[in-house]
Structure prediction request, 498 residues.
Amino acid sequence: MRRTSQLPRRSFLRGMGGVAIALPALEIMMPRKSTAGGGAAPTRYVVAFAGTSIGRTDGAYAESGQTTDLFVPDTVGPSYDLKRALAPLGDLVADVSVVSGMKIPWDTGSGIPAAGRQVVFHESTMCPLICGVRGTDVDDATGPTSDQVVAEAIGAGSPHPVIPVCVQAASYRGSNGSGGASGTLSYRLGGSGDLEKVAPFISPRLLYESLFTGFVPPGADPATIAEAEFQLARRKSVIDLVKGDADRLLGMLGGTDKQRMERHFDELRQLEQRLDMLEPLPEGSCTLPRPPGDDPPIGNATETASAEEYDTSAAWSDEETRALVHTDLLHMALACDLTRSVALQYTYAHCWLNMYPVTGHTNDLHELGHGGTGSDATPLEAMSDGIAWHIGHWARFVAKLRDTTDFDGRRMLDNTAIVLVFEGGHGYDPEGGDQNVHSSENMAALIAGRVGGLNPNGGKHIVAPDEHPTRVITSAMQAVGAGGTLGEVDGVIAALFE
Prediction:
């Protein structure tokens, strides 16, 4: 039992969140590949979500009752213009396509249509958007999400088939809890066929420990190898080390939970048995990241207030640093083939994250969409700055993929499809009438990567009137080899392959 005490309990407990982390991600867990520049590289998939609409009624537009945005380019095709919200793309225009004019349909009295939403805006668009199935429950997805479907298709041989991450650390309302529907982007089918939420990594420290404890990058020095071998010897069988705790836990669980945990233990044992069956990674761009240290403290909840009364010290857990660290760790996890499918949620749907630290506008993201700015910017400008914060971090991820050499000598971005979708657009709201920020009309998405014929001539602006925004996701899925169907959404945005 002395060895059991050496194992951090969090390494076992964190695995209950849906991501198998029983063992450190080791070089010898990698599938065999050819040396860099001389063979095929894995395909990779990233789906990201921002909890904001892209436009609102503002200024002179309000007088005419027109809703607009500072997001959608005026130019159609390549070399499109960058408005305020898209400005962080910078020189990535050559690699990023913008798809605009899309729509999630809603119940008009005859029931929720295929891949449609309820007549409740907040949280209702997220379900059909991420799983392609009509949202019969505002609080949850109703089908497996794209990251899980992709992992089934291309994740074989990867120690972490899916890595779900949420940058926003808490809800910042009520009990200030984390997770729930608004904080969950990944859903999978369990062994009994039930749909299961997959809890995201919120802590950068836990994400690092789960991915890189004991990891040996190619070409490591002897001291690093010796330390990794020591860690492996100490932690080689997590199940054996925590068997007593595991047995006690199983005894406390009900039938369904007991089956899930037993299945989880089986999965962990299978991972361990693969250790001696796989060969090392080739040298290339895979390196060991530095430990991120302790997480920033969780901020306090706050109540809805005017911009003049808004507490700029609350509703903030240094999501700026969290986004930077999560991006760096996910980038390296993909570069080292520790995973091939990522679900990255920046902010919750119906988001109360404080925007003052990153935009200077005195309010949360949700209230910026309703005109509460507390600055000299117009409401539309302030809202667009909040959108730009998300796009800036997503663009940084894309740039890292662009600037990293893959196993085959190409850019990692050439073997990847990475998408960013948004909670809403602007236009008609069946609850609030014409020209409303609470609308699933005029939705837009960003997509980058060159894998599978995607963006063959580079990035461009595509107008896709009334197309379902999930077709941007299915386009990325088809590009990485996971088919062009997600739930009730079938087919792709054809212009993305032209």
Q: What stands out?
A: The chain has a mean pLDDT of 83. Residues 1-30+216-282 form one domain. The CA atoms of residues 160 and 339 lie 5 Å apart.
